[in-house]
User: What shape does this take?
Amino acid sequence: MTDFAQNAARNLARVREKKPLVHNITNYVVMNTTANALLAMGASPVMAHAAGEVEEMVAIAGALVLNIGTLDEHWVAAMIRAAGKAGSLKKPIVLDPVGAGATTLRTETARRLIAEATPSVIRGNASEVLALGKGAAGTKGVDAVHSVSDAKDAARAIAGYLGTVLAITGPEDLVTDGERTIWVENGHPMMGMVTGTGCTATALVGAFLAVDDDPLSAAATALAFYGLAGEAASVSAAAPGSYAVSLIDALFTIDPERLRAGVRIREDR
Amino acid sequence: MTDFAQNAARNLARVREKKPLVHNITNYVVMNTTANALLAMGASPVMAHAAGEVEEMVAIAGALVLNIGTLDEHWVAAMIRAAGKAGSLKKPIVLDPVGAGATTLRTETARRLIAEATPSVIRGNASEVLALGKGAAGTKGVDAVHSVSDAKDAARAIAGYLGTVLAITGPEDLVTDGERTIWVENGHPMMGMVTGTGCTATALVGAFLAVDDDPLSAAATALAFYGLAGEAASVSAAAPGSYAVSLIDALFTIDPERLRAGVRIREDR
Amino acid sequence: MTDFAQNAARNLARVREKKPLVHNITNYVVMNTTANALLAMGASPVMAHAAGEVEEMVAIAGALVLNIGTLDEHWVAAMIRAAGKAGSLKKPIVLDPVGAGATTLRTETARRLIAEATPSVIRGNASEVLALGKGAAGTKGVDAVHSVSDAKDAARAIAGYLGTVLAITGPEDLVTDGERTIWVENGHPMMGMVTGTGCTATALVGAFLAVDDDPLSAAATALAFYGLAGEAASVSAAAPGSYAVSLIDALFTIDPERLRAGVRIREDR
Assistant: This one.
């Protein structure tokens, strides 16, 4: 049986020791926040999207983060190239299918990326992840319109079909590889009032994938870490501007021991 | 006679209830700030610029925000496409002609966008807005070099000529549809020390356009709301880093009743 | 003998008086932070990268900042065009070769920009700057892997060879034109935990280049100013989220007299 609290503490300690390079091809809205979150937790972020360098960059990285939040044809081409290289080098990939289901371009791009190289983890809200499995229409922009708990059976089926770990974030986070189903209870409602918290969660999964060979463990523990940071931030901040600042602070100040004690993960059996 | 204080409170309450999707094609500098401001006030932001999806996105949005702050040919093409779709669907558009008058590309792009589909509102500083009417040269980058009060007569003429509402922000904000002239007195000088406050104002106008059929009312009340947030932020912050954080907080904490009481709008007769 | 403390105070006072337009072609991650830092210190930032306007924009600017942090072919073309125009107009250029040495594209792009128009100052970490001189491989993403002090002799040789001022930032900052070697002792370790602090340093050098004809003085005093802001920020903030906010605040609150008193620069003889 996986000791997630123990893994979380170990993963955070490893990131701070090894400072893995996390290669992000992500959206314009969150690049600054993502870089600051990765730095605060102890990882080494790099953002690079030029077709002429993504393969070289992914080759020196510990993980690749793909996020389609502000995609266009050039960025998609770069993501496909980077994903192919990561796949051939067995580097872990985490995919954030922002807005999948909202437009055809986003749904199809997410599917193309998955076909190019299976991500170790796909992290999204329920609507986005479900759109990957059944072409469901009707997501409202980048908001979550399906609830996480309703998505459980569908998520297990899609994870099994795609051969990946799905991490669906919401009031509770659901992580599944198609067989096991893990619930991460850490988090705070104010996280939904700050742009890019989902994208940050994806990037933290990337950092943990660089130090943890088990994608289910990496995803669940990264979400627990970020959720605990969200809880800590709520102590000092009650509105989203100051809350966003406190969130970054918490990623820096939480140490492995505190993380171990704070993890609230349960397995669904 | 329009009761702007009443409209302001009603618009804010409606945004928080309906959470309209606001589709932004905006500049790289402010994307994060804009998204956080829209979220904090209660709207649902999305940033999307790919030619292959802007029409689909605008079709599910409540308003379209076009901002040419870091334009290039690809982004201009996307804006024109989105504007055309919004026009055909009668979706409200707000245009921010950042730097119009500073370079030929910016002035001409703003004019092309207006020709493609008349915006409900154009929000800029005095130099930018006047450049749309007379090809005036000499704006200093993205700074305001003409004063708002001097711009009144020219603005009324341009608004009438273009058939739109002009919202010129400065120490006092001027809003006119060519016939009526409204002054918004809310605001604080520190807002000028934070990048993207003008762009945020534009996005807030977009959110109010999604819930208010009267563009003059939507523009004036959005600027009053943002100005009141600027006043509130000045209570807790005296330097621009912390002020920017407090501004986002204020967009979240101000409720409709406080807004109604704080609006300072007068009509010029 | 240069009185750097005096020059620092004079440069800051001049920036606040003249509000020079600083034209940035920089990376997506730091655009917002850079603009806010320049505004807070008193300069007037503009971000513009379209091929169709960079020459017009650089013609009205006081300095050009080139930063290859998230480059691609279109941005490189714009940078080359802007650099050529700046060179022909004798406008000062500061180059930030982010990640030079990490990928071939970055190293070659930095060299092409230098060949197009010699920058007045090149600001980077030790790895990046050394990569410009010897094609050294092995930088780890955008992190500094060589120490500043070890880089001294190499930096002097490269500065002389390129005919520019090199500013290498680290625990101590090294500034050299190939003959003189200046050490800037201001700064704080927490600056390394916030993304884009190097890029901000580069932009501040740009602002000072707009008001100081001596690139060695402009670079050293800008780094001292930013380092002093970093020291001031550490008084009120102990984690990187709130530290980043306090850094911007400090750029606004430090006045020329306080800067003069706080500068710690020594010349290596």
